[in-house]
Amino acid sequence: MADVRDLRIVVIGAGMGGLGTALAFAKKGFKHIDVYETASNLGFVGAGIQMPPNVVRVLDRLGCWEEIYADSTSVKGTSIRQGSTNAELSHVDMPDIEEKYGFPHCTGHRSSLAGGLYNGCKKESAIKFHFSTALVKVNSFMPKPSLTLKPRDGEEFTVEADLVLASDGIKSVTRTQMLAELGTESQEEDTGQAAYRIMLNRADMANDPEMLALLDSDDVVRWVGERRHIIAYPVSNKQIYNLSSAQPDTNFAATTNATYTTKGSKAAMLKVYEDFCPLVQRMLNLVPDGEVCEWKLRVHKPLVTWVHGSVALVGDACHPTLPHLSQGAAMAIEDGAVLAEIVSKIPADKMHDPETMNKSLKVYELLRKPHCSALVDLAAHSGRILHLGAGKAKEERDREFKQNGKTGSVPDKWASPDVQKMIYSNDCVKEADENYKRLFATL
Ligand SMILES: Cc1cc2nc3c(=O)[nH]c(=O)nc-3n(C[C@H](O)[C@H](O)[C@H](O)COP(=O)(O)OP(=O)(O)OC[C@H]3O[C@@H](n4cnc5c(N)ncnc54)[C@H](O)[C@@H]3O)c2cc1C
User: Which of 8, 63, 405, 410 lies 20 to 30 A from 181 at CA?
Assistant: First the structure.
């Protein structure tokens, strides 16, 4: 008997989006899921990640949250401080996130999140990973998508699938080709910002009580200055303090988009933050010479569509974002969960009908594009507010910060109770379940 779960699914990329997508389809009972990844392994950078309740809800359903939670920190508040003085502009208490939204807001190590998803995938016999294998091109988007893939040390080969989910990141080959077929260009956008990512070990912080207090707290701290900020929080059972910054991009400004990361100079990093307070200086000074790494922060102009034929884009491939709202990976994982929910609803007698598949993917786009676009805009907006220099706008911002969210809003949008309510209460899978039929009928 025909069964939609017999569809052959190809996932491109084993980042957070790809892993989440593969696992979500396996949990829905799909039996043939092949994941192709350029890199030879998961290869996640040494960096932290915030996992907000909206994605924890999804991870919990996928059965991998318990493992990830084991070394995470449940955030109880955020302290937004003037970078130059360490004076607190605002402290937003978040003691009851779990009570309010059913799941906590956590910080953790990227390798924990990726590892939890990957371990979940490995338990599913339906999922096959093909590392060191890159998508070279999409030969056709419909009726059956066909792909050319290339193993690192082997000959190119062709794969046909019923559905291709391209979670191939900001530099997505699939997106470029999809847009070209649709007569538009892929237009990446320079944000003018770059980020340092730093991890400090407990042992290195042990002799500094002020630093240890940060590591032992359940707070996220953001130090803000003109055109720059640093956000920091504990990860790995509070054995590591993770710092991530945003500053004007000077080192990448002249380069092409071939590479987005570079070994940075410690002296240059210290210079960028030279007028930040002694506490920040002491932390930056702990970074070993030669271990400063800088990321170029890029986004993409809004896409006309995320879907073509039986191919859909997922995660950073379709909605890359500045990190200021801490929702990029969360959105990518949610995308996969929504796709799995929707595709599982395709009636068996229509599972090989290209029009039904395309319309179903369009439902995914209808559900996700307005939401993700709003979050991408909000992240950019929050960055502009956080990076204000002296003047009336900054005075107004600091006055709003002083009200400590009592009005239901603070200028740092990730910490803002009204924004949290909008994002954290969103149950994307339930929304997909409840709206699939109605939205499908509109297409
Ligand atoms: C400084 C910083 C801080 C951040 N903080 C947070 C945070 O706290 N919370 C949060 O939710 N998000 C955060 N993000 C965003 C988050 O990291 C990304 O949005 C998320 O990782 C995107 O996942 P993805 O799977 O879509 O893309 P990627 O992680 O880029 O994965 C794409 C994968 O596809 C593979 N690939 C690419 N091309 C091909 C090809 N042709 N063939 C085969 N494989 C291919 C790549 O090797 C890669 O493994 C942050 C980002 C930055 C830069």
Answer: 8
Q: Please tell me whether the overall predicted TM-score, pTM, comes out greater than 0.90 for this model.
A: yes
| Structural fold of domain 4-49+111-187+303-387+417-441 | FAD/NAD(P)-binding domain (3.50.50)
The structure tokens listed for 41 are 């392994």
* Ligand 1 lined by 382 (C-beta under 6 Å): no
DSSP SS3 for 169: coil
Expressed in angstroms and rounded, the spacing between residue 278 Cα and the centre of ligand 1 is 33
140 phi, psi to nearest 5 deg: -155, 145
CA nearest neighbour of 104 among 93, 96, 115: 96
Q: Burial code of 72-104, b = ≥16 C-beta within 10 A, e = fewer? A: bbbbbbbbbbbbeebeebbbbebeebeeebebb
Closest residue to atom 38 of ligand 1, CA basis? 168
Do 204 and 158 form a contact (C-beta atoms < 8 A)? Answer: no
CA atoms within 13 Å, Cβ hemisphere of 331: 30
Pick the residue with more confidence: 181 or 291? 181
Q: How far apart are CA 88 and CA 219, in angstroms?
A: 13
Q: SS3 for 275-292, per residue? A: CCCHHHHHHHHCCCCCCC
Q: Is 14 in the pocket of ligand 1 (CB under 6 A)?
A: yes
Q: Which of 55, 150, 316 to mutate to test the pocket of ligand 1 (most atoms within 8 A of CB)?
A: 316
Write down how long the chain is: 443
Query: C-alpha angle 239/237/103, rounded to 5°?
Result: 145
Tokens 């046909």 belong to 160
Q: How many percent of the chain have pLDDT more than 90?
A: 89
Q: Is the CB of 20 under 6 A from ligand 1?
A: no
**Ligand 1 atom having least distance to the Cα of 43:** 49
Task: Name, in order, each residue with C-beta under 8 angstroms of 264's C-beta and a sequence gap of 6 or more.
Answer: 196, 251, 292, 293, 294
Tell me whether the omega of the peptide bond preceding residue 278 falls within 30 degrees of 0, making it cis: no
Banded model confidence at residue 253, pLDDT cuts 50, 70, 90: low
Which residues, at least 6 apart from 301, have a Cβ–Cβ distance to it below 8 Å?
A: 187, 188, 189
At 292, is the pLDDT very low, low, confident or very high (cuts 50, 70, 90)?
confident
What pLDDT score was predicted for residue 260? 60
**In this predicted model, what pLDDT tens digit does every residue of 224-243 receive, in sequence order?**
999 999 999 999 999 999 99
